[in-house]
Design a protein that fits this description.
Chain C: Keywords: Membrane, Transmembrane, Transmembrane helix. Chain C: This is Cytochrome c oxidase subunit 2A. Chain B: GO terms for molecular function: copper ion binding; cytochrome-c oxidase activity. The complex is a heterotrimer of chains A (about 550), B (about 160) and C (about 50). Chain A is mainly alpha-helical. Helix content of chain A is about 70%, strand content about 0%. In chain A, helix 2 packs antiparallel against helix 3 (about 90-115) and helix 13 packs antiparallel against helix 14 (about 450-490). The longest helix of chain A has about 35 residues, at about 450-490. Chain A is globular. The N and C termini of chain A lie far apart (about 60 Å). Chain B is an alpha+beta fold. Helices cover about 15% and strands about 35% of the residues of chain B. The radius of gyration of chain B is 20 Å and the shape is elongated. The N and C termini of chain B lie far apart (about 65 Å). Chain C has a domain at about 25-50. Chain C is about 55% helix and about 0% strand. Chain C has one helix at about 20-45. The termini of chain C are far apart. Classes of the chains: A mainly alpha (about 550), B alpha+beta (about 160), C mainly alpha (about 50). The interface between A and B is large, with 78 and 71 residues.
Chain lengths: ~550, ~160, ~50
């Protein structure tokens, strides 16, 4: 009964939809990676961009294309594949909605990209008002969000269909996780859609003169923090469900995995103020309240750490490992599908620890807007998440295209992972260190009028350039592997690994599927954390800000 | 739902550590007054020059307040006013800033003085300049093509 | 350091805590890292004006 909908292979028609998402994602990797390389070279002070190209234009490309396009497209594709595999092939109607969403997202992406390339939107991926981009840029971003809602609808419809067909049964774990992430994304994107549609679009069209900066930033960060969890949860899906199967072990606990995802749904959203700790217009008591809520969202990650170690240790011991750490030796280190995401897991340890520092109320003064923060999210999204996505691609792309990951490609994939680890250690390590000394993020090379403090940062910037160059080589290698797996690898069957729980008799409590309850609590928490400070921002608003194009 | 004994131990440890962090932060913020800068005052961004506080940027001695000096900065693309300022060592100073155009990030390297400066809002932080030296003031929030050229210098002198 | 010699007789239970000793030590290493980093930056905050 439970297994009835589990496809051995993702249906060919669904596979095409997933691959369409992946093509866009990997084109984004090429463009964004190249932009990143140029940035670290410029910041080393040894290289200047050819005439006409601005550092901040390149930086906007890097942030938008990697932070919004690569992630959103890969995640949507990955979640579609996971749902199609575990809850069954999409109906034609569901798949059509998915395709409509894909094309809306793609059109939006192209529109925004054209505006950035025309230098009409060098506002970085956070597009803080009152810097004013061309209205087509805002329109493009709106389309990306609206398109993602359509793709999300496909997942929600499939889930509902599965539940109707299997009354009283907990949904397949991967489908459950994809659904949680889709719902979190939907609730969160309402914020960014509101600021873009109600504030920025009319303002950039000249329909209104000014914009309320405080409200706009608050709506952005209401979206901005769940955005990073929207990136992270698909990586957790792979860690909880796929990695155990790849190593030959079991999922430590199905129920605890579901519980941690529910906790992410509840606590990822009402925490945006920890990105606004140093700004005027928000009462410090409300900031502190959201700091407390931010700390609550640490707990499901602590649970995840335990589950993963436990999965690895249980497997190692089942293979006869002894001693405290003997199980480490039993893990399949030569399998890139495991090792590359594992490097990502390791990176998440300093990444998570740094995140707790960032969110620590007044301690944020030490690190806010320094390059430490850049170092932080290059460990979270640009290592933990992205290496997991790469690790997924090594089997999912050939699974979808009916090909095989060859030994040679597996070896290249391992090298790719190691190069990433080395490059990121240099780049992120140097960023963290320079940030503690006060070096700013989002800044082109500058000697700051010959200030002694700024001179101290330059060696770290050179280390960043070295690390960034190594990372770029790793990106090229990844693109080579992707193209091989999509078009040239030998025909064959590549497994879609879905792990089984260690304890098969323990059924996940049905309360986890009670979405009225969980969405209800989510909304209550949001109202609790945001209502009063948001009313304050509107009631005590200063005169609005007019738009500027300062690039 | 079953949870392993070791996982319980781990979660108790983790939650306790988080509670200790929050208590330290909370006592420091609400009892000792080390709140992040959160001034709730506003100003018309087009009339900054006419504003009582901002018409004369720079260091001013004040009487009858919890601090000895007020250090006023006006931020605009791509400069701070004043461009350089001397502060006596050991002075307790309220640093006050606003923006005439877009968002800037008022950061003083090597110190805890770090606050967003947004058009329409006044940002404030009180601190005691208790270490001599030259401190670079820079803009740490992107504000346009000259963002990285926007600087000032605070010299803390005996 | 505890060794795994004392395994077989408790093997029947799922709640065999000796089998997850490495996990416990590993997560506490993570916890230790979090605390050290946090305390380090907190002292930096205290040291600066």
């Amino acid at each position: 009964m439970l297994k009835s909908s589990l496809n051995i292979k993702v249906d060919r028609r669904d596979a095409k939809l997933v691959m369409a998402h992946f093509y866009v994602a990997f084109i984004a990797l090429l463009v964004g990676g190249l932009a990143g390389l140029l940035q670290v070279l410029v910041r080393s002070g040894k290289f200047e961009l050819p005439a006409g190209i601005g550092y901040y234009q390149i930086l906007t490309v890097h942030g938008v294309v990697l932070g919004l396009v690569l992630t959103t497209f890969f995640i949507m594709g990955f979640q579609l594949a996971a749902v199609s595999k575990t809850a069954g092939t999409f109906t034609n109607k569901q798949r059509t909605i998915g395709w409509i969403g894909f094309w809306i997202m793609t059109i939006g992406t192209v529109a925004a990209a054209v505006m950035i390339l025309l230098n009409e939107a060098s506002v970085l991926y956070t597009f803080y008002a009152p810097l004013q981009a061309h209205f087509v840029f805002y329109l493009g971003l709106t389309l990306v969000v609206v398109g993602s809602w359509a793709v999300g609808t496909t997942i929600i419809l499939k889930y509902a269909e599965w539940r109707r067909a299997n009354p009283g049964q907990p949904s397949p774990l991967l489908t459950f996780m994809a659904l949680v992430n889709t719902m979190m994304w939907t609730v969160a994107t309402i914020g960014v859609a509101a600021t873009v549609l109600i504030q920025l679009l009319p303002w950039s069209l000249g329909l209104v003169e000014t914009v309320n900066v405080g409200v706009s930033r608050t709506l952005f960060w209401y979206f901005g923090h769940p955005l990073v969890y929207f990136w992270l949860l698909p990586a957790y899906m792979a860690w909880y469900v796929m990695i155990p199967k790849i190593i030959g072990g079991k999922i430590f606990s199905d129920s605890l995995a579901r519980m941690s995802f529910i906790l992410f749904l509840l606590f990822s959203i009402p925490v945006g103020f920890h990105h606004q700790l140093l700004e005027p217009g928000i009462d410090p008591a409300w900031k502190f309240l959201q700091v407390v809520l931010t700390f609550l969202v640490v707990i499901p990650s602590l649970m995840t750490a335990f589950s993963l170690f436990a999965t690895f240790e249980s497997y190692g011991r089942s293979q006869g490992a002894t001693g405290l750490f003997g199980w480490l030796k039993k893990l399949p280190w030569k399998d890139a599908r495991f090792t590359v995401p594992f490097i990502g897991m390791l990176a998440f340890i300093p990444a998570g620890a740094g995140g707790i520092v960032n969110a620590s109320h007044q301690m944020n003064q030490v690190v806010h807007n320094t390059v430490w923060v850049t170092g932080h999210f290059h460990l979270t999204v640009a290592t933990a998440v992205v290496l997991t996505f790469f690790g997924v691609s090594f089997w999912l792309v050939p699974h979808l295209t009916g090909r095989k990951l060859t030994k040679k490609m597996n070896k290249l994939a391992l090298i790719q992972g190691y190069l990433w680890a080395i490059g990121m250690t240099f780049m992120s390590g140097a960023m963290h260190a320079a940030g503690l000394l006060g070096a700013p993020r989002r800044s082109s090379f500058s000697e700051y009028g010959g200030a002694a403090q700024a001179a101290e940062w330059i060696p770290y910037q050179i280390a960043q350039a070295v690390g960034g160059s190594i990372l770029f080589i790793a990106i090229i290698l990844m693109l080579y592997i992707f193209v091989n797996l999509a078009f040239f690898a030998p025909k064959g069957e590549e497994e879609f690994p879905v792990g089984e729980a260690a304890n098969q008799t323990e059924k996940a409590p049905m309360v986890f599927e009670n979405w009225k309850l969980w969405l209800g609590i989510t909304v209550l928490l949001i109202l609790f954390a945001y209502t009063i400070p948001f009313i304050d921002l509107i009631k005590n608003a200063p005169p609005g800000a007019q738009g500027y194009k300062l690039w | 739902m079953h949870m392993h004994k070791f996982e319980k131990i781990w979660l108790i440890f983790g939650v306790t550590a988080l509670l200790v962090f929050l208590s330290v932060l909370g006592v420091s913020a609400f009892y000792l007054g080390n709140q992040p800068p959160s001034c709730l005052a506003v100003v018309d961004p087009t009339k900054v020059d006419e504003h009582e506080t901002f018409k004369e940027p720079g260091l001013k001695k004040v009487e009858g307040k919890d601090w000895d000096y007020e250090l006023v900065f006006v931020a605009q693309a791509f400069a701070y006013t004043p461009g350089t300022v001397e502060v006596p060592l050991g002075a307790k100073v309220k640093v006050i800033a606003t923006s005439k155009d877009v968002i800037h990030g008022f950061g003083v390297a090597g110190t805890n003085i770090n606050m967003m400066v947004e058009p329409g809002y006044i940002s404030e932080i009180v601190t005691t300049f208790d270490k001599a030296g030259e401190y670079l003031v820079l803009c740490n929030e992107y504000c346009g093509s000259g963002h990285h050229l926007m600087t000032s210098m605070i010299k803390v002198v005996e | 350091m505890a060794k795994a010699e004392l395994k077989s007789d408790t093997k029947t239970e799922i709640e065999d805590s000796s089998s997850l000793k490495g996990t416990l030590v590993s997560v506490f290493f993570v916890g230790f890292f979090i605390v050290v980093l946090w305390v380090g930056v907190y002292f930096l905050y205290l040291d600066r004006f």
